[in-house]
Amino acid sequence: xxxxxxxxxxxxxxxxxxxxxxxxxxxxxxxxxxxxxxxxxxxxxxxxxxxxxxxxxxxxxxxxxxxxxxxxxxxxxxxxxxxxxxxxxxxxxxxxxxxxxxxxxxxxxxxxxxxxxxxxxxxxxxxxxxxxxxxxxxxxxxxxxxxxxxxxxxxxxxxxxxxxxxxxxxxxxxxxxxxxxxxxxxxxxxxxxxxxxxxxxxxxxxxxxxxxxxxxxxxxxxxxxxxxxxxxxxxxxxxxxxxxxxxxxxxxxxxxxxxxxxxxxxxxxxxxxxxxxxxxxxxxxxxxxxxxxxxxxxxxxxxxxxxxxxxxxxxxxxxxxxxxxxxxxxxxxxxxxxxxxxxxxxxxxxxxxxxxxxxxxxxxxxxxxxxxxxxxxxxxxxxxxxxxxxxxxxxxxxxxxxxxxxxxxxxxxxxxxxxxxxxxxxxxxxxxxxxxxxxxxxxx
Length: 444
Hints:
18 helices; DNA polymerase, domain 1; hpI Integrase, Chain A; 48% helix; disordered C terminus; alpha+beta; single chain; 3 domains; rod-shaped
């Protein structure tokens, strides 16, 4: 529509006389351009700033005209702009145009502002999506995929001592976690008397962040770690408390092992058979033994899988000889069903949990052995065999530990089955032997 001349009429008259769709120039702007108005089909009037840049004219909407606004007000009301406020808005835009003329003018300024805003929105959205909790979950999933037995422990620690204990930090961006925050988490655990857990939390968290750092250089790490955009490892900048990493060396003494054997030897059913298999196999790790499968059992040997070690290397097969008494225990267990797992309460469909097996041992022992825990059986077996002159190497092969050296990894191909069987024979004899009369008298 044609623009009208407002030189001889008041601004109010010009605005009231505007026809639908008609533009009119209200006043020129000292900094550049002019204030214009146009009546819309709805009847309302909208202000515009009109300017010319590099030979091309352009209009930028200011806002709706508010006829009830104070005439000299410089700021818009809830309903719109007075003429004075519209002029002020035009001046602001004209100033930006003059300042940004060499880099695209007002329009490029608006576009750049929009890009910055969109980028900030994306960063915020990414931060909401890539939280500390999700990074830790990704690490636990990775451990589980690699068949690492520690995944359950890591998941539990992250759940209770990060997600539940520090919800604001856990729901915040993983990339924003600071070493001080990791230290605070550890400090809270140590105050609660959980120093070992504090060190484990740090270790698991450090490993999770290291995965995110190594994802661009190590193909074995899942690509999902890339999205967290981690550039530093906050847990690596903290220190563990070495005093909390003391070995839990509290083995059952031989006499208590004998008491335990006497109890489980008489225990009927699945419970007794499972506990006898555990002890007579040399105190294998409960988490590994509880997942024993029928396919991995023969008349003389069973195989479990040691998942301890670095992620991506896969579990190591660990073959254990079966003494006749242990083989008899296996027969009792597999007779209860035809499912996949040997130690099970539903016919082998699902494996028995390590916690259930530990609880069974507590129930059988009762209060006959002070501070009894099933994990003490493993160290008790090693201690008893050491006292019986079974070598360190054989004990390591029997219990699947201390086998990570260069010699064992690359050169020693012997399966140690005969040595392991001899060690188990020694263990069985130690459990079965009764105190002599001489020893009984001397203890009085």
